[in-house]
């Protein structure tokens, strides 16, 4: 049993902690919170709670929340820590704690690439992450791109990829920044960082990306245009994508006319409406000349959860790629959404 700690119990951390608990080859030994708010109270009821900031231990005691110790105590007991702290805080935790003791660490996409030895996507480069000490799971947008493009590249001769990301501006829980009545090019000058991140995982892919922030919190949407080096029909692409559990094919004919409707569907079938799969509109898949068009939606709060579980197995070298992905998929019921349609 691999002993796993989750440092940072926010949007990603709480989902990763729950997912770890569902695995039969891992044991969640604790999670951290920085201060005793309502999330800490919920965390303490379901998990062994530790203080992410050693100096804040007293705050938890004063609030009557049982904590088992500080992050330093938690790390002593763990084989691997999944760092789910805010952007650029992971690298601080690395320097402060993870390099000082013998522990492996999984970082998130908000960290710079050089925080880890490898940027990770389970389908695309699981084997290269085997046994690594520090692994970075790429961001939600990059995970969505890597999954789809890896599958296409494995099955068809493709050339240059142009992708535009229409990004949700913040997550639903944010109350200090967020929705403004406008659309923001981010960055203004192409390419966006996503292309570089995808290339960190799939180095030989020719890709350029642009990105815009939209006043919505539900999901990202990606519009892709991929040049083809062989004759491919939309049906060929659908046939390949429907075999991959981490891709969920939908159709506007079923009423999936927007991210609103995708979320409404997921609210009926998944806790917190977590969608771990890329949601691809089958009827968006079209070929015009030698160009393939695809539109997909990505649930930013959930898509990296399975990748974190696979990253743990790869770093700990306890399973082959196919075995890990299958275990993760089964435990999180990935690939089962089409049963509801
Ligand atoms: P979040 O703000 O929801 O959660 C971060 C948690 O870490 C909070 O509970 C915060 O209190 C805690 N924290 C603060 N300082 C800490 C410290 N020093 N040590 C440990 N914990 C600390 O953030 P999030 O959205 O879960 O993002 C976490 C990481 O995942 C970031 O790198 C982000 O870029 C990445 N990510 C986020 C999303 C998303 O859409 N939310 C998607 C993919 C990847």
Give the helices and strands, then pairings.
Blueprint: E1 2-7, H1 11-21, E2 26-33, H2 38-46, E3 49-51, H3 57-62, H4 71-77, E4 80-83, H5 89-98, E5 104-107, E6 118-120, H6 122-125, E7 134-137, H7 140-155, E8 158-168, E9 184-185, H8 193-201, E10 207-214, E11 220-228, H9 234-241, E12 247-250, H10 259-269, E13 278-281, E14 286-288, E15 291-298, H11 305-316, H12 321-332
Parallel strand pairs: 1-2, 1-4, 2-3, 4-5, 5-7, 6-7, 8-10, 12-13
Antiparallel strand pairs: 8-11, 9-10, 11-15, 13-15, 14-15
The structure holds nicotinamide-adenine-dinucleotide (NAD).
Query: Which residue ranges are poorly predicted, with pLDDT under 50 across at least 5 consecutive positions?
Result: none
Order of helices and strands: EHEHEHHEHEEHEHEEHEEHEHEEEHH
State which percent range the strand residues make up: 15-25%
CATH architecture of the largest domain: 3-Layer(aba) Sandwich
- Specify the helix fraction band: 25-40%
For the secondary structure, the number of strands is 15
The CATH superfamily of the largest domain turns out to be NAD(P)-binding Rossmann-like Domain
How confident is the prediction overall: mean pLDDT? 97
Global outline: globular
State the CATH class of the largest domain: Alpha Beta
Q: How many angstroms separate the termini?
A: 37 Å
Q: Please give the count of helices.
A: 12
Q: What number of structural domains do the residues give?
A: 2
Our Rg estimate from Cα atoms comes to 20 Å
What is the SS-derived class?
A: alpha/beta
Hetero groups in this structure are:
nicotinamide-adenine-dinucleotide
Major pleated sheet = 8 strands, mixed
Assign the CATH topology of the largest domain.
Answer: Rossmann fold
